[in-house]
Design goal:
DNA-binding; single chain; alpha+beta; DNA polymerase, domain 1; about 20% strand; Dna Ligase, domain 1; Alpha-Beta Plaits; 14 strands; 3 domains
Length: about 425
DNA sequence: TCTGGGGTCCTAGGACCC
DNA sequence: TCTGGGGTCCTAGGACCC
């Protein structure tokens, strides 16, 4: 029909909430919400949406407007299983699959009967996963994205190039994938409000106003493939970040430091899970008024041990921490990551860098955590953060969860042992 | 959208060199 | 030491995504 190769965009409808319903079919037809651990709505079923519940809404507000709402904590392990099943089903139809995110993928469809293939994929996904998907089929990723958003939930929209103007005319520029608030404002200021108006501008106009990514979007709106599918989904990270907001904000350096320390521990857990080591760290403190105090630290050698990172951080922390300022969050981003399983470089003195012993300690700590729950063992410097009960967690005053120390995040009772050390 | 958390890519401009 | 021209590399920050 219209393309020799079409691109399919598949998007799980209310994915997290749908996974919960698929996991527990008795929830079907009910207003189900995920995000309990954060205290705000993360995902919701269409039944919940119909009651006026919105993403980001505070849970107390949810209970007020919808007392029968079922509010569940996020269960990423389950979502990830459904995600993998989704990819696997799509791969029965084509090898050209890009795993774009936990609830979305792109697929390349060869041949003339794209619509039939898309229909069949959709039916199979729904039958085998017990949830609906919205699908767009067109010549480029940007157009396929417009297609999958066109009818939600449970939609299938094929955008042939000759019909594209009909769809683009009804799409405001800010709804185009890759065009955010800043660029929308810029385009609007030049009188461009719809995707159609944008697509009709000439090459010189677009290049004169916008940077490369937007020139590419403009081409894709016109049916020219610029973004090929990234099928070789060897997932790895260029950076790993952990950040956490706490309430109420604090001006106590020891408490703020413990929050940072906990974030460092969490970032390092993820680092080790992916067999990575960091050469560089970026820390920040977010003030009550949303200003950032930050520092960049280069690590003496690649590491995934929180002590080593913390000992580097502890020198910068007093410099960026300002007395009397209240902070609401801390964060760390680890960058310049290398594969820890690669052979080690010798240093100038032809010795392996220190840190190999500490590695053994962390293998044991990770083993303990997998047996007894996350943070079964943790650094002393994280102690007050581990103890801290965060009201935003959405647990009531009579919370069953008193502290992380005596009750694991799994809910099992246990005794955590703070690991005593230098930091 | 009264602002949570985790990522990636691009570019302007500074530092530095010849 | 008021002063041309050209190139590369790196970093900070902007913008965007889910």
């Amino acid at each position: 029909m219209m393309f020799e190769r079409a691109i399919l965009h598949i998007d799980g409808d209310s994915f997290f909430a749908s996974c919960e319903v698929a996991k527990n079919p008795s929830l079907k037809g009910k207003p189900v919400i995920t995000g309990r651990e954060r205290g705000i709505v993360s995902a919701m079923t269409y039944e919940a949406k119909a009651k006026g519940i919105k993403r980001g809404m505070i849970l107390s507000e949810v209970r007020r407007i919808c007392p029968d709402a079922i509010i569940l904590p996020s269960d990423y392990e389950t979502y990830s299983i459904f995600s993998k099943r989704m990819y696997a089903i799509v791969r029965r139809y084509t090898d050209i699959v890009e795993e774009y995110s936990i609830d979305e993928c792109f697929a390349g469809i060869e041949g003339p009967n794209g619509r039939e293939v898309a229909t069949s994929i959709k039916q199979t996904l729904e039958r085998e996963l017990g949830m609906t998907f919205s699908i767009g089929l067109s010549a480029t990723k940007v157009l396929a994205k417009i297609g999958s958003k066109w009818k939600k939930p449970d939609g299938l929209t094929v955008i042939a190039l000759k019909d594209a103007p009909l769809y683009l005319d009804k799409t405001p520029v800010e709804k185009i994938w890759g065009i955010g608030p800043a660029t929308s404002l810029l385009l609007n200021s030049r009188g461009v409000r719809t995707a159609l108006e944008f697509s009709l501008k000439n090459d010189a106009w677009v290049r004169g106003l916008l940077a490369k990514p937007y020139v590419e979007i403009w081409k894709e709106l016109n049916g020219e493939v610029v973004n090929e599918l990234d099928v070789d989904g060897r997932q790895t990270y260029k950076s790993i970040a952990k950040t956490k907001t706490f309430t109420p904000p604090s001006h106590d350096p020891a408490f703020v430091y413990s929050q940072l320390s906990k974030n460092v521990e969490n970032a390092c857990i993820k680092l080790r899970r992916w067999h990575l080591e960091a050469r560089e760290a970026h820390i920040f403190l977010k003030t009550q008024s949303f200003a950032y105090h930050d520092a960049k630290i280069s690590l003496p050698h690649p590491t995934s041990a929180p002590q080593e990172i913390l000992s580097a951080i502890s020198k910068s922390f007093p410099r960026i921490f300002q007395r009397g300022v209240r902070y609401r969050a801390t964060g760390i981003s680890l960058m310049n990551l290398i594969d820890s399983q690669l052979p080690k470089q010798l240093n100038l003195f032809n010795e392996y860098s220190s840190g190999d012993d500490i590695k053994a300690v962390y293998e044991s700590m990770d083993a303990l955590s997998s047996r007894y729950g996350k943070h079964a063992v943790f650094l002393c410097s994280s102690f007050s953060a581990m103890n801290h009960k965060n009201p935003q967690d959405g647990y009531g005053a009579t919370s069953e969860r008193t502290t992380n120390i005596f009750k694991g995040e799994s809910g099992r009772k246990r005794l955590g042992i703070p690991m005593l050390g230098e930091v």
